[in-house]
Amino acid sequence: xxxxxxxxxxxxxxxxxxxxxxxxxxxxxxxxxxxxxxxxxxxxxxxxxxxxxxxxxxxxxxxxxxxxxxxxxxxxxxxxxxxxxxxxxxxxxxxxxxxxxxxxxxxxxxxxxxxxxxxxxxxxxxxxxxxxxxxxxxxxxxxxxxxxxxxxxxxxxxxxxxxxxxxxxxxxxxxxxxxxxxxxxxxxxxxxxxxxxxxxxxxxxxxxxxxxxxxxxxxxxxxxxxxxxxxxxxxxxxxxxxxxxxxxxxxxxxxxxxxxxxxxxxxxxxxxxxxxxxxxxxxxxxxxxxxxxxxxxxxxxxxxxxxxxxxxxxxxxxxxxxxxxxxxxxxxxxxxxx
Length: 338
What we know:
This protein is an alpha/beta fold. 47% of the residues lie in helices and 16% in strands.
């Protein structure tokens, strides 16, 4: 039988994306109409070592195929994200590129067996931005595992106390407004970070902040169970791209219909991002002295006057000569005194 597998693998990987558009064609490499419909690839993600070889060859092939009239596109990929390398510390604590030839690889089977696939996924995406180098850390893996366990307990504690029936969401108290604000701020942050930016680490960090707040208010009679339950439910949805297996289990345990991959992505309520009040830090010569709540819409001058009229601030400034006042609306006021 004639041997046909004689080309280097780089030849095949230089046009495979076109074959994917028409994989069962036994008459030609691909149908031009099908290739024109699907091409070009929206997003290419590859390691830095691929940028010189595979990526360069693929572009050359596409240009030649375009010149031959076989494709309408002359570039195969619309966007490029070059991933950073994974490093691991040696016995001297020096991080080196993880490689089989060096013998410093971490077995995925061991991580999956001990922690599960979601922990591995979460750690890799949380430890560093995708375009930066990632320094492998066993402690970091353990931390991701503990966080997923916190989310698991959060959901099951809620279900045990409130059941699986969805409750009416009402925003009444100051505490309700704060929770609703943090929830929608998280939705906006995660959506923006995922959508084109690939800032997975900061997206996960914002989900962690929401989970921390939910633990803080858990059991408080000042936050209604309907809003709290909605926030817990949205944590599962927002976390699902990073930890799909555990989130699907939690989604079912909350009695929600369907599967998460068919559930609509949450939409931020822009009105909830605006708070009536804001906590302002009061500094004297740059040192924190006090905190107080003020109207969120105060101007720079109004904020300075409101803080200055607070009884506790007046005590702190008693007898001091104010030479300069620095006010940042919604954040801080710093009095420079002599």
